[in-house]
Amino acid sequence: MSEYFLGIDIGGTKILTAIADSSGKILISNKRSTEADKGQDVIIDNIIKTIDNVLNNSNISKEEVASIGIGSPGPLNTKDGVIIENANLPWRDVPIVELLEERTGISPIFLENDANAAALGEKWFGAGRGVADLIYITISTGIGGGIIIDRRIYHGKSDIAGEVGHMIIDPNGPLCGCGNHGCFEAMASGTAINRMAKKVVEDNQESKIFALLKGDLNKINGKVIAEAAEMGDQLAQDIWKRAAYYMGLGIANLLNIFNPGMIILGGGVMKAWDCFEKPMMESIKKHAFDSAFSSVEIKRSELGDDVGVKGAIAVAMGDRLLS
User: Fold this and answer.
1) Which long-range contacts does 197-201 make (Cβ < 8 Å, 24+ apart)?
2) Which tens digits make up the pLDDT trace of 103-123?
3) d(CA 68, CA 313)
4) E-assigned strand segments in the chain
């Protein structure tokens, strides 16, 4: 009998489910709105609908599905398959693995933090193929990460390892959503870059950023800042340089601690790669140990928007990928 694997990427606004063959190749996928505002039961129903859709449209039976992998924001208890809490979803202590096993009749089902799942996706199907030790960092609205040591996710004692966005870069820095000041996320995420730009542009209305926004600073975003930088706007270029400095500082800390073979960078901020690559690399080189810097590859994600669901498929495949 053929073996297939289901991957489910759960987000605050969408659920993306895909079915893959034994090589990890996606055969078909389905996306639905999470409808988080309608509560836990509706979210679970929507997950089931995506599963039914990919099975029906691929003519694959449930009996042919070897396992399911789920990537979800945390915190989680991956061993027991429980979503402990989620800022974007209205549930607490949800035994999602048990619920989905009962509803689908498919077992086993594995639960993993979404950033960890993305790290596995890049390791097995993306930029990290052939690399045993790597760190995946997603820089978007926030900053998350996944640490892979000897081809496996490092979870830590209580399942929260990899929260790279919350290492403190500057204790006197801006307040982070976690309650601390000057976290990596508060200094270099897309949200941090937008906040920094809004503050500076308010006092410098001659900037091309202000012109592109037609004066509406509430619409400021990385795309506009990048466009202004490419147009030669010094203010926009300085914003990227400052953010890149902190990106490099955070990455250098991880290099000095873990000495990985590769750092993979994903997330929406990577679309402005040309604006910050050079100053970021200069900052990494300045702050990392020479041996750590010289032995690491720093690459952009290869999986793009599919990184979450490809990661969930890697979670489903589990130890099969190690053989």
Assistant:
1) 197/225, 197/236, 197/239, 200/235, 200/238, 200/239, 201/235
2) 999 999 999 999 999 999 999
3) 7
4) 4-10, 14-20, 26-33, 65-72, 76-77, 82-85, 92-94, 109-113, 134-139, 143-149, 152-153, 262-266, 297-300
Q: What is the mean pLDDT of the chain?
A: 94
Q: 147: alpha, beta or left, given left = phi > 0 and alpha = psi -120 to 50? A: beta
Coil/strand/helix, residue 27: strand
For residue 39, what is the enclosing H or E element? none
For the stretch 39-60, what's the b/e string if a residue is b when 16 or more beta carbons lie within 10 angstroms of its beta carbon? ebeebbebbbebbebbbeebeb
Answer whether 112's CB lies under 8 Å from 312's CB.
yes
pTM of the predicted structure, to 2 decimals: 0.93
In this structure, the number of other CB atoms found within 10 A of the CB of residue 297 comes to 13
Q: Which two tokens stand for residue 178?
A: 């976690």
